[in-house]
Specification:
With 335 residues, this protein is mostly beta strands. It is built from three helices and 29 strands. Bound molecules: beta-D-galactopyranose (GAL). Beta-D-galactopyranose binds next to strand 25. Belongs to the aldose epimerase family. It is an enzyme of class 5 (isomerase).
Length: 335
C-alpha cells in the first residue's frame, strides 16, 4: 500500500513506499522530491533516515529548495546565463552573478507536480510541463519523474521528457545523503569509490573551467576508494576553492560506478546510471541549519554541467519531439 498523507500546505502530499525488507521511502509532489530514505539497520530494528529531509513543503521553501528535489531543465551552472541552441542564442535567468544555477528561479523543484500512483509497481510518477520561455528555456517540455522502490532495496529514478521545440535538458535529483543518519555529524569518514579517471576542475565562479583533468595523485582519485576526508583537509587548491567537493567526475562505463559505505560499515550505497557524470557536493555552504558544514553529500548523476557551452563536454540537446530518458538507481545494502 502506498500511503498518502498531508505534507504541510494544502497542496503538499507525502507518498510513503515500503518493501518486504522494511526499507521505506517518502516522496512529495512538491518538487517531485525524495523526502526520506529509511533503512531498518539499527540494532533494535529501528529505522535510520539516510537522507537530508525537512518536514513540510514550507520548510523546504524557507530553508533550502534543493534537497531531494528534481532539478530541471538543466542541472548545475550555465555560463553567462546563455546558450546557443541550433544556431539561436537563448538567455536564461541569472540567479547567480553571470550564471544560471539549477534552471533559474521558481523552477519545478518549487512547484506542485501532478501525481500517478502505481501500487503494482510500487512506484509514484510525478509529471509537470515546463512552459515555453520559462527562465528563458525554449519549448513546452513535458517531464515525468518516476520513483520505484524494488524488493532488492533499490530506489530507481527515471526521467522521461519531450519538448515541442529544440531545447537543452539535463535533469538530476538533488538528494543528499548522510549514511550515519545524523546530519549533525560530518560525512568525512564515509568511504567512497568512484570509477572515474577524470574530473572537471572549477573556476572562481564555481563553473567548470572547461577541461577534464586526471584524478591521478589528487584528492579526486577515488578509483580504489578513499574518504571524503582526503578533500576536507583542503590541501588541494580545487578543494580550497569550494571548501570540499563540488565537482563533476566523468564515469567509466561500469555497472556500479559509485559506491559509498557508512563509517560504521553497516550500510553500502551503490549507484547505477545511464548518465555520463556524477556531481558530488559535500554541503560546503550549509543552508539555514538543515545540516552541519560537510553534514551531507549529493550524488547528482547527469550530463556534465555547462555542457551546452563547452566543446567536448557532450551534448544535452533535446530535439523537438525526441524522447529523453535518464535512469539512475540508488541501491542500499545493510549488514
Ligand atoms: C549543487 C551545486 C552547489 C550548490 C548546491 C545547492 O548542485 O553544485 O554549488 O549550489 O547545488 O545548494
Amino acid at each position: 500500500m502506498i500511503e498518502i498523507s498531508p505534507f504541510g500546505s494544502e497542496r503538499a502530499r507525502k507518498y510513503h513506499l515500503v518493501n518486504e525488507a522494511g526499507m521505506q521511502v517518502n516522496l512529495t509532489n512538491f518538487g517531485a522530491r525524495i523526502v526520506e530514505i529509511l533503512l531498518p539497520v539499527e540494532e533494535d530494528g529501528g529505522l535510520r533516515n539516510v537522507s537530508l529531509s525537512a518536514s513540510s513543503d514550507e520548510e523546504y521553501k524557507t530553508k533550502d529548495p534543493y534537497p531531494g528535489a528534481t532539478i530541471v531543465p538543466v542541472a548545475g551552472r550555465i555560463s553567462k546565463a546563455q546558450a546557443e541552441i541550433k544556431g539561436k542564442v537563448y538567455h536564461f535567468t541569472e540567479n547567480e552573478p553571470g550564471r544560471t544555477l539549477h534552471g533559474g528561479v521558481n523552477t519545478a523543484n518549487e512547484q506542485y507536480w501532478d501525481v500517478e500512483v502505481n501500487e503494482a509497481a510500487n512506484s509514484v510518477c510525478f509529471t509537470i510541463t515546463l512552459s515555453d520561455g520559462s527562465n528563458g528555456f525554449p519549448g513546452d517540455v513535458r517531464v515525468k519523474a518516476c520513483y520505484r522502490l524494488t524488493e532488492d532495496n533499490t530506489l530507481e529514478i527515471t526521467y522521461t521528457a519531450q519538448s515541442d521545440k529544440d531545447t537543452i535538458f539535463n535533469p538530476t535529483n538533488h538528494v543528499y545523503f548522510n549514511l550515519t543518519g545524523d546530519v549533525r555529524q560530518d560525512v568525512a569518514d564515509h568511504q567512497i569509490r568512484i570509477a572515474a579517471e577524470t574530473y572537471a576542475p572549477l573556476g572562481e565562479d564555481n563553473l567548470p573551467l572547461g577541461r577534464l583533468e586526471s584524478v591521478e595523485g589528487t584528492p579526486f582519485d577515488f578509483r580504489v576508494g578513499g574518504t571524503f576526508a582526503q578533500g576536507f583537509t583542503l590541501e588541494h587548491p580545487q578543494n580550497q576553492l569550494v571548501k570540499g567537493y563540488d565537482h563533476p567526475w566523468v564515469l567509466n562505463q561500469v555497472a556500479e560506478p559509485v559506491e559509498v559505505v557508512s563509517p560504521d560499515q553497516r550500510i553500502r550505497l551503490t549507484v547505477t546510471t545511464n548518465q555520463p557524470a556524477v556531481v558530488i557536493y559535500t554541503y560546503n555552504f550549509p543552508s539555514q541549519d538543515m545540516a552541519v558544514f560537510h553534514g551531507a553529500f549529493s550524488l547528482e548523476c547527469q550530463g556534465l554541467p555547462n555542457a551546452c557551452n563547452v566543446e567536448g563536454f557532450g551534448s544535452i540537446l533535446l530535439e523537438k519531439d525526441q524522447l529523453f530518458e535518464h535512469v539512475t538507481s540508488y541501491k542500499f545494502t545493510w549488514f
